[in-house]
Structure formats: C-alpha cells, structure tokens
C-alpha cells in the first residue's frame, strides 16, 4: 500500500551519510546508525537531503544509501528519499533509482538555478508524480533554492494529487499558517526548523524532518507529544535546553557541525565531502559544552 498523508508524521530523521576515513561510503556505520535511530523512536528516515550530502554523492552512491537504509529499516519505518536535483530529468532518474532501491516516498526539492513561476513548478510536480509513481513530499527551503511558492500554489498541488506532504524549512509564520489552513487536513505539513519546531507544531505541523534528531530522536518526540497534548510550557522548557546545541550544530554549514556532534557521541568520524571541511576546533568545543550541558540536565 502506498503511503498517504495520514502515514507521515512524528519525528522523521534527515539522516547523515557516514564516510570511512578514506572518504568512501561507510555501509556498516549507516546500518548501525539506522538501528540506533529506530530504537530511539524515530518515525521515519529521510536519507539524501542536504544533511545526507546529496550533491556530494555520485548517482550510484545515492542508490546505495537508499538501499542500505531500506534494508536496515526492514519495514519498521518509512524511508523517504531526498531528491535535490536542479532539473526534471536528473530528478526523475534519481527518483526512479530510489524507488528501485525500495524507498516508500520521495522528498523532492523545488527546482533551483532556473527560477520558475509557481505555475511551472506546479506542472513540474504534477508531471513528476505521474512519472515516478511514488508519493511525494514537497521540500521547500527558500534560502537554498531562491524559490518560494505561494501557500495557494501548495494547496493546489495537494488538490492535483502531486504531493502528500511538505517539509517547510523557512521562517515565514504567516505563510506556514496559510498552508495549514488551506491544506493541513489533506497533507502532512512538517517542520524543517529545529528552533521553530514547537511553534510550528502548535500551528498544525504533524511533526518534523529534523537533522538534529540524528543525535537522538527521543527528546524531539517528547516535545512533539507535549505540544500535541496542549502542554506547551513543558515542551518549551525541554526545547530551550537544546538551544546551545542547535546553535553549535548550525554554526557551520550542515552537516559539518552535526557530524562533529555525532563523532563526540561515538557515531562516525566527522568526515564530510568537499567543498565542506571537517568542523573547526572551536565548533568541537562548543558542541562538547552543549552536549555536556544536556547530559547534566
């Protein structure tokens, strides 16, 4: 059975792609990390987003990452593979490869570099959904793509049957509210911003696709549950404890800080691919302090 918007929610981890010391894909570490995330309560896995270094991987490596993630998840949670291609043909080939590797759905970024109007983006996703024949989660991240759709366009894409959900990585609360009001009953609106997560859940997000949940999804699931239960004060109290860690993780381009934090926790070696470089010493220090503070609370 294909995923529907009702099947998507909770804390979906935007997973890192681990590398060996010589820069190759680390299959054993990836399997181990997936097992950890599932045991800690993640609701889904989203490999190959920006956190997964999609642009730095070869076509074959992307297919391997999805296949390994699907194998390790073993049907316990959905695998929503990222597609960060600039144009339709590349996006289609990546999507079909992810489908072949067993992905449950695709998380597709709005095409970038060629800056289109909303009508063209709407047609793009309609054609893409029909061609790839998998459920699609729209991934909107305007600060990376220079493309921001109108709330009405997104609602129309839901009506078209092009998308069943969206990850919104943006700070426009007015737009976010309009999306939930117009389409929140027919699509899974997901937060992509850790600093805004409780507020966006309070406004109607069904959960989040959160990179920081690589460290541990459990506290983020707790925050989500508290907000949904109307216990906002307690949720904000837990969320506030993560402020220093969020700041440290994103003090360098994602996933540099995140991989360094995982390394400090005994997961991976912190390696990223060029043009990114491993975290600076000051970032390691900030991360160590933030993690120690969390453990002490």
What does this structure look like?
The chain is of the alpha/beta class and 297 residues long. It folds into 2 domains: 5-229, Aldolase class I (TIM Barrel, Alpha-Beta Barrel), CATH 3.20.20; 242-297, no CATH class. 47% of the residues lie in helices and 11% in strands. It has 13 helices and 8 strands. The protein has helices at residues 27-39, 59-73, 88-100, 118-132, 142-145, 151-160, 173-183, 197-202, 218-228, 232-241, 243-249, 256-264, 281-296; strands at residues 10-13, 44-45, 80-83, 105-109, 136-140, 165-168, 188-191, 207-210. Strands 2-1-8-7-6-5-4-3 form an 8-stranded parallel beta sheet. Helix 4 links the parallel strand 4 (105-109) and strand 5 (136-140). Helix 4 packs parallel to helix 6 (151-160), helix 6 (151-160) runs parallel beside helix 7 and helix 11 packs antiparallel against helix 13 (281-296). It is globular. It starts with 9 loop residues before the first strand and ends with a helix. 46% of the residues are buried. The mean pLDDT is 97.
